[in-house]
Amino acid sequence: MMNVAIGMIGSKAMESIGRNPEAAGKILVPMLLACAFAEAIAIYALVIAFSI
């Protein structure tokens, strides 16, 4: 499920950059942070699931 979220984040970011290429610098960093947080949540869920 998290892969879908990360894919949607990337898709919408690329769509936004396609519409407004000048904003690429302002879009790229928040996109990478959002992907990192989404991935971290998945890792925490796995750690909790296997520790129970």
TrEMBL record:
<dbReference type="Pfam" id="PF00137">
    <property type="entry name" value="ATP-synt_C"/>
</dbReference>
<comment type="function">
    <text>F(1)F(0) ATP synthase produces ATP from ADP in the presence of a proton or sodium gradient. F-type ATPases consist of two structural domains, F(1) containing the extramembraneous catalytic core and F(0) containing the membrane proton channel, linked together by a central stalk and a peripheral stalk. During catalysis, ATP synthesis in the catalytic domain of F(1) is coupled via a rotary mechanism of the central stalk subunits to proton translocation.</text>
</comment>
<keyword id="KW-0446">Lipid-binding</keyword>
<keyword id="KW-0138">CF(0)</keyword>
<comment type="similarity">
    <text>Belongs to the ATPase C chain family.</text>
</comment>
<feature type="transmembrane region" description="Helical">
    <location>
        <begin position="27"/>
        <end position="50"/>
    </location>
</feature>
<keyword id="KW-0375">Hydrogen ion transport</keyword>
<dbReference type="InterPro" id="IPR000454">
    <property type="entry name" value="ATP_synth_F0_csu"/>
</dbReference>
<keyword id="KW-0812">Transmembrane</keyword>
<dbReference type="InterPro" id="IPR002379">
    <property type="entry name" value="ATPase_proteolipid_c-like_dom"/>
</dbReference>
<feature type="domain" description="V-ATPase proteolipid subunit C-like">
    <location>
        <begin position="5"/>
        <end position="50"/>
    </location>
</feature>
<dbReference type="InterPro" id="IPR035921">
    <property type="entry name" value="F/V-ATP_Csub_sf"/>
</dbReference>
<keyword id="KW-1133">Transmembrane helix</keyword>
<dbReference type="GO" id="GO:0045259">
    <property type="term" value="C:proton-transporting ATP synthase complex"/>
</dbReference>
<dbReference type="InterPro" id="IPR038662">
    <property type="entry name" value="ATP_synth_F0_csu_sf"/>
</dbReference>
<dbReference type="GO" id="GO:0015078">
    <property type="term" value="F:proton transmembrane transporter activity"/>
</dbReference>
<keyword id="KW-0472">Membrane</keyword>
<dbReference type="GO" id="GO:0008289">
    <property type="term" value="F:lipid binding"/>
</dbReference>
<keyword id="KW-0813">Transport</keyword>
<dbReference type="InterPro" id="IPR020537">
    <property type="entry name" value="ATP_synth_F0_csu_DDCD_BS"/>
</dbReference>
<dbReference type="GO" id="GO:0015986">
    <property type="term" value="P:proton motive force-driven ATP synthesis"/>
</dbReference>
<keyword id="KW-0066">ATP synthesis</keyword>
<keyword id="KW-0406">Ion transport</keyword>
<dbReference type="InterPro" id="IPR005953">
    <property type="entry name" value="ATP_synth_csu_bac/chlpt"/>
</dbReference>
<protein>
    <recommendedName>
        <fullName>ATP synthase F(0) sector subunit c</fullName>
    </recommendedName>
</protein>
<dbReference type="GO" id="GO:0033177">
    <property type="term" value="C:proton-transporting two-sector ATPase complex, proton-transporting domain"/>
</dbReference>
